[in-house]
Every structure is written in C-alpha cells, then in structure tokens.
C-alpha cells in the first residue's frame, strides 16, 4: 500500500508539473506576440483527468494531511496547536493530523496545490488556502463546500465572506490579514518601505498604493476601471502617514522587498544605504519585531508603534481551511472536527498571542480590547520577549479596524492571471518604463486576464 501511494503521488506530481508547464507556455506565448491589439482566446478550462481511486487514498499511516505554507510565527505556535490536537484533544478514532508545509512562497504553493488538484491527487486532505485562491479552487472543482451555520456571528464578516463562492462556504476562516503601518519612534526622518517585488505581495501593495492615493483599478463589479487618479496614485513619490497629516517618500528599494526582507530592514533602520522609518506589513510582523531586543528600549517599551491605514481600505489577506474534493469520505468528519478546533476561541487566542496570526473570531478581538485574553509565556532559556497584554490589546484594535475596512481581491477563478498582468504593468509604471498611454491601453488585457482569456498580442506593458 505504501509503495502504491508513493507511486501515485509521484505520478500526480509529474502530471501536475506537465500541466503547469503548459500553462506557463501559454502565458509566455501571450507575452511575446505581435504588438498590435489582437483577439482573445476562449476561457481557460481545467484539464479533465480521472480522480485517484478512493481505495488508494488512505494516506501514509492513515494520516489527515493538512497542506499549508511555512509557519512564520516567532515560536512555531501553529505546529504546537496541531501537536496538542494529536496528543490530547483528538477523538480516539480520528486519524492524526499531519501538517505538511508545502512552500514558503505564496505563488509556488498555489501552483503546486492546483497542479495536484488538477491531476486528481488525494495527497492533501485539508488545504490552507490564501483567500485570493478560493474562487479558483472552488469553481475548478478542487475543493468542496462546507456546511457552516454562523448566525451567531462568531466570524469576522470580511474573512467569512472571503471563503464564500456562489452562495456556498468553501473556506472556513483560519487567519485574518489586513495592512498595518509600522513606525519607528526613534527615527522618523527615513523613508517608507513597501513590498513591491514581482510576486503576489507586489500586486497587493500596488493595489493599495492606488487605492490609498485616491485611484481605482476595479469598480464594484470587479470590472477594470483605470482613470487619471489611478495614474497619479501610481506615480506619486510619497505615501500618507497614518498618524499624521504628513507623508514619507516610498523607497525605491521596495521593488525588491518582500515581507521578511522588509522586517529585517525595519529592524536595522536602513536598506541599501537609505534610512527606513515606516513599513507596510501584515499583523504577524508585530510579533517578529516585538521579540527582537533591538526593538525595545531599556525600559522594555517598544521602539515602534503600529496603526491601521489612516484612510481605511487596503487589501484583505489571510487564509481559510478547505476540504479537498478528493478527500476520502471517512476522513471528512475528522477533518471537520479538526477545523472546529483550529477556529475555536482558545486556539485562535493562542495563535494570536504567541504567533501573531490575526484572529478570525469577533470574540477574540473583544476579549483583548477589554484587557483580557491569554498572553504567551516566555519560554525557559529563550531571549524572546513576547508581547504584553497591553501591547496585544493595542494590536488587536488596529488589526480589527484594518480588517473591517479592507477589501477582498476579485473573486475570479483566473485571479492569478490578472495579478501577473496587473503587477507587470504597475511595476513598469513605477520604474518609469511604461508610458501613460501604454498603461491605459492595458485595460483590455486586464479584462481578458480576469475572464480567463490569454491575449495573442504583445502586452502593452
């Protein structure tokens, strides 16, 4: 059985890799066609392949495999939550949960999960999906709906709706993300560091750059709507500060920065020889900063503060827990019991206090803002300083404010194509390599990408 499962997984990976290679070839062809506007092809349709026979989906030692990204929290608390489930809380008849960290890259992780799903693989039972992927995985049949009755309003509205597609709940909120501004209190004359690298994080930051600058990319119906304000926001040199009426220059080094690199530069107060005083990042950055002795004064007070965006808005991030379409039927009930535990108030409070994951439950925010909630004890022999209850209360208030104003990315099964095209154009504008005319002429290409059509002409960006 073990040899058969290994052979199946190898076959699935090979098939998945071939499918992803075909997709890349199609995208490359679209990027290198003639320069004049051309027609669009038919919508992309997933390749139909048979699913793995259910009798071959037992999993290694009957485990419940949960596919996710790397645990980037300060103390690997997410894995501790899973260990606690397996050792103390799991019903005796349920299979143990195996946390499988697929990749630390959002883009690579999505591609690998999608490739295996297209091949009909049952290698994963539960998927921890970025909220931006839910539409793709739901409408292509990679995941299945989950019955959820939230009439009591346990979940935050934004994260809950992010997991809903066509009126059904395909993803149960697991971690909530929204933009926060970090400001050094000991150095306020430096620049503003964003994450504008050529990955999904770059797309998010460019969308926010335009929104915070008063421009638009998409209207309320997710139709492309570029205008003069879009161009002005994308070419502005500064960014308004959340705590004052001033602005700070956005550092050119942002073009190569990701979340982790930004945190390192913020701690050091410099990047590429330029001083850094402000940073846009996710809530989890708070714990990584607070745990560093360099970010606290002699009185142990933080040398930085954090605010939700002053103008409101921003891009909603985070993750959901989803059931694979190919999960073995007798694993569904155990998977749902695990999901219930991961979204319980106790687990969500621990993930927040010790790891910095944004809670998805309203009650967790209310508890911390009222001065309660669990704090994370300092580990024996560790020099990590965990946030105090006062610091957790302040952070909870800012995260909640940001989540309540953040907007989801388009619920399109072809969002990944749109993201790549938009990011290429936005980076070109910011690098002063794309003209105003070329940028506005990209609207048709963006519309085509959003609807799953690849252009046969050379992209204007």
UniProtKB/TrEMBL annotation:
Region listing for Disordered, in residue ranges: 32-61
InterPro entries to which the protein is assigned, alphabetical: SBP
Q: Per its UniProt entry, which superkingdom is the organism in?
A: Bacteria
Give start-end positions of Low complexity composition bias.
Answer: 39-53
Note one Pfam family from the annotation. Answer: SBP_bac_8
Tell me where the signal peptide lies: 1-30
Segments forming a coiled coil: none
> What is the recorded name of this protein?
Extracellular solute-binding protein
Q: Which UniProt keywords apply?
A: Signal
Which Gene3D superfamilies does this UniProt record tie to the protein? Periplasmic binding protein-like II
């Amino acid at each position: 059985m073990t040899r058969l499962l290994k052979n199946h997984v190898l076959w699935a990976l090979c098939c998945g890799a071939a499918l992803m290679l075909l997709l890349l070839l199609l995208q490359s062809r679209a990027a290198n066609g003639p320069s004049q506007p051309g027609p669009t092809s038919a919508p992309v349709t997933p390749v139909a392949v048979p699913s793995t026979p259910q009798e071959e989906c037992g999993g290694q030692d009957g485990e419940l495999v949960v596919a996710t990204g790397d645990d980037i929290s300060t103390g690997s608390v997410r894995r501790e939550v899973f260990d606690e489930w397996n050792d103390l809380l799991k019903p005796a008849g349920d299979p143990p949960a195996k946390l499988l960290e697929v990749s630390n890259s959002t883009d690579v992780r999505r591609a690998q999960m999608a490739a295996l799903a297209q091949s009909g693989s049952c290698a994963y039972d539960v998927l921890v999906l970025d909220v931006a992927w839910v539409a793709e995985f739901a409408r292509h049949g990679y995941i299945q709906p989950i019955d959820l009755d939230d009439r009591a309003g346990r979940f935050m509205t934004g994260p809950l709706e992010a997991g809903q597609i066509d009126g059904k709940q395909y993803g149960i909120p697991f971690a909530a993300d929204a933009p926060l501004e970090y400001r050094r209190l000991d150095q306020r004359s430096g620049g503003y560091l964003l994450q504008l690298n050529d990955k999904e994080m770059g797309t998010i930051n460019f969308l926010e750059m335009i929104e915070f600058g008063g421009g638009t990319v998409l209207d309320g119906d997710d139709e492309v709507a570029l205008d003069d304000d879009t161009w002005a926001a994308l070419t502005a040199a500064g960014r308004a500060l959340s705590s004052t009426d001033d602005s700070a220059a956005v550092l050119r080094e942002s073009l190569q920065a990701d979340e982790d690199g930004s945190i390192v530069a913020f701690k050091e107060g410099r990047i590429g020889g330029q001083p850094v005083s402000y940073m846009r990042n996710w809530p989890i950055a708070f714990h990584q900063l607070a745990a560093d002795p360099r970010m606290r004064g002699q009185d142990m007070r933080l040398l930085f503060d954090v605010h939700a965006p002053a103008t409101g808005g921003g891009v909603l991030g985070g993750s959901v827990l989803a059931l694979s379409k190919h999960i073995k039927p007798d694993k569904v009930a155990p998977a749902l019991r695990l999901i219930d535990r991961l979204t319980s108030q106790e687990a969500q409070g621990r993930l927040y206090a010790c790891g910095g994951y944004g809670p998805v439950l309203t009650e967790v925010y209310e508890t911390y803002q009222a001065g309660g909630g669990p704090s994370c004890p300092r580990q024996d022999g560790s020099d990590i300083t965990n946030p105090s209850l006062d610091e957790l209360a302040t952070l909870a208030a800012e995260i909640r404010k940001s989540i309540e104003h953040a907007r989801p990315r388009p619920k399109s099964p072809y969002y990944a194509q749109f993201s790549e095209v938009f990011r290429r154009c936005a980076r070109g504008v910011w690098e002063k390599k794309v003209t105003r005319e070329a940028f506005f002429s990209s609207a048709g290409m963006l519309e085509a990408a959003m609807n799953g059509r690849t252009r046969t002409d050379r992209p204007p960006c």
